[in-house]
Model the fold of this input.
Amino acid sequence: MKTQFHLPAGPYFLSHSVGRPLRSTQQHFNEHFFAPWQQGQSEPWPQWLGAVQDFTTALARLFNSEARLFCPQVNLSSALSKLVMAHPGLSKAKCKVLMSEQDFPSMGFALQKSLSPDSEIVFIPAGEDVSDIQVWQSHMQADMDMVFISQVYSNSGRQAPVTDIVATAKELSMLSLVDVAQGAGVIPLDLALVQPDFLIGSSVKWLCGGPGAAYLWLSNEQLPSCEPKDVGWFSHANPFEFDIHHFAYHDSALRFWGGTPSVAPYVLAAHSINWFNDFGVDKVRAHNLKLQRQLLDECESLAVSPMSEQHRSGTLILHGGAKQEQMMRELGQHNISVDARHLGARVSFHIYNDEQDVAQLISILKRFI
Ligand SMILES: Cc1ncc(COP(=O)(O)O)c(C=O)c1O
Done:
């Protein structure tokens, strides 16, 4: 498996930050981005737009939904702002949203600035267990308009009980949005089963698809009521109508697209997502859990991420107590790529990691037990 990816010299455990590129991606990019541009008789747009459609089709397969419900986006923050300004239930005065202090800060920034000024964001305090549905239920109230759910919390290595939170939101007539930035490509999510209202995600982490290929998904029920504000000709039902006095929203999620789209990031990401679709995200997760068990068998006392596999994400969080800084230094000196946040070192095992990589890591960690 290692030979299929570009990898650095030492073990690479940073897939929660940037996944490694497939070796085959470069050729795919040359064929689908450069070739139509370099060799085509006419302009390359038909092929380029087809390549972006491959991206939404790949996402539909990954999340078990329809391609027309996905819109390419630059990043999650931008997708979130656009959605809030477009949806009548989120753009209204005095909107009330529930999220966690453990969510990625950029998500909070985007909400604070895009919600109307009299709106309220209620935070589940950082110390509470976001893997526990009872914690969510104790905060969710019928006067709230939306719950923001991170499928995975990157600093604590926890998964949220997404299906149960969405079900509770429906009972309370709240909207639900799932952020899959840290889960896509390692923790399977079936939109037909979970049925949230919205989903935002990217391709840069476990999907190994590079930056700039994010996406916004809306349910069939929510899509028609959305009226995006920052539109462009690619948001139009007929981009080539060219009547400056007439604008009509595209009937698909592409109404969120805007002006002339970027293409290159989606060509890269579509190839990678399709590779993972063929391989199977459930197999990525099974491999990830197997390597996590290998580490925990020997170093369980360092782990601060959950012991239950159902609550644990693709990332283990390890803390060396008083020797944490020394532990990080020694890992770096041995060419082992991990990073650290306030709860500890973040260690992610992907399909391109193997037992030897984990054994190398364990040999260093054991000095800190
Ligand atoms: C849970 C989560 N959401 C969102 C993001 C990134 O958001 P954006 O694409 O706006 O940079 C990250 C990045 O690490 C993340 O971990």
